[in-house]
């Protein structure tokens, strides 16, 4: 199997982790305030105490598995951009930075669950305080803003569009998603921009995954050098 196909599978795995994350966010975790900015730490640690396995699995999926698949995709896409060596190097750097931040956020999130579970039976208030602190670190690393991801997806899409290395739909989705990620730097627009980034990233990962997997990363170009 070629690196391109492996990268395509990794991209589809990234999309799957986002879909799983959203599914739990709007169902089991919705009453706790996740995704609304109005989380009740006391309710969260009580939920964690009963469902620590579920929370560990959720964090592992949306952060750890996502980060590992993302690292593979970053390398595959940088190789895809090899006709533009400068862009390839820049995108690899930004992509690996993002993957590292996501992985770090996942490890912090799981530590928060473990610590809350240990402390809750004796001191629920202290458990809530510790979880809140670690959750803030988690959000700072990657769960609460999408700057690193936005920069990477935007750079990959612009470079791929210039050289006709990915389908037009993937490049268009990438530009929209990347811009959405950058806008999360503004707190007033964070929730809306985050939703644009998240949903756009799902579509982008799928488009890239299909292009790299089913077509082995090779797409016919029109006379203008653009991917058909």
Automatic annotation (TrEMBL):
Calcium recorded as keyword: no
Residue stretches spanning the membrane: 12-34, 54-77, 89-113, 147-165, 172-189, 195-214
UniProt keyword annotations, A-Z: Membrane, Transmembrane, Transmembrane helix
Pfam family, one: DUF4386
Lineage: superkingdom: Bacteria
InterPro entries reported for this sequence: DUF4386
Name assigned to this protein: DUF4386 domain-containing protein
Source organism of this protein record: Paracoccus seriniphilus
């Amino acid at each position: 199997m070629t690196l391109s196909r492996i990268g395509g599978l990794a991209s589809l795995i990234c999309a799957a982790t986002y879909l799983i994350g959203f599914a739990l966010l709007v169902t089991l975790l919705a009453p706790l305030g996740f995704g609304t900015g109005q989380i009740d730490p006391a309710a969260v640690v009580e939920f964690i105490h009963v469902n620590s396995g579920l929370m560990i699995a959720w964090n592992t999926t949306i952060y750890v598995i996502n980060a590992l698949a993302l690292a593979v995709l970053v390398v595959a896409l940088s190789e895809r951009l090899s006709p533009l060596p400068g862009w390839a190097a820049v995108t690899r750097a930004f992509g690996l930075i993002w993957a590292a931040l996501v992985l770090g956020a996942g490890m912090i999130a799981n530590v928060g669950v473990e610590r809350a579970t240990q402390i809750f039976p004796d001191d629920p208030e202290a458990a809530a305080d510790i979880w809140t602190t670690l959750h803030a670190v988690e959000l700072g690393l990657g769960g609460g803003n999408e700057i690193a991801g936005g920069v990477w997806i935007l750079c990959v899409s612009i470079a791929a569009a210039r050289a006709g290395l990915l389908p037009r739909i993937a490049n268009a989705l990438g530009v929209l998603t990347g811009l959405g990620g950058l806008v999360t730097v503004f707190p007033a627009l964070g929730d809306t921009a985050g939703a644009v980034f998240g949903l756009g990233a799902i579509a982008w990962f799928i488009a890239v995954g299909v292009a790299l997997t089913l077509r082995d990363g090779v797409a016919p170009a029109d006379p203008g050098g653009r991917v058909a």
